[in-house]
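fyi for ur records
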Amino acid sequence: MSTDGNNTTEGGSQAAAPASPRPYWIGVGLMAMGAVWLYAGFGLPQGARYAAVGPGLFVTLAGAGLLVLGAILVLQIWRGESFEAQDAEDADGATKMDKRAFLTALVAVALPIGTMGPLGMPFTATLSFMLVANAFGSRRWWLDLICGLVLACAAWFLFKQLGLQLGRFFPPLGV
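which gave:
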């Protein structure tokens, strides 16, 4: 190695740059998520009395898909596939993540955990819809609330017609 700060060997040729670490953890994490979904899916009924498809079937299929995709990703990383940010449509790959929008969408996804029982499905879905719309840039919260309420009520009534037990429409009012 020369002492002038360059990465040259004594023969004057350029030294090989250190290899960047390969992100195997992404594929392994995806496979771990698939394993969790499979474990949970096998604990649910795969079939039902009133339909041939039970709630566990879709969870099991999603878990199997995650396992397969994780294995493919690990194989691609092992083969040396490079994963670089790509510009998509009108998005700029160099733009930093909007943390406020991400956290708003995260709250919208987590909201049903605490509000579905006490507030009911339509009200919870309405709030989640409004938060996701806000995360995607909508600033007309009143229109988002109306659209969310219409869609949530329609979904609740349609699922109720199918005989699914969704609970009460709006439990605080006893409806």
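The mean pLDDT is 81. thats all i got for now
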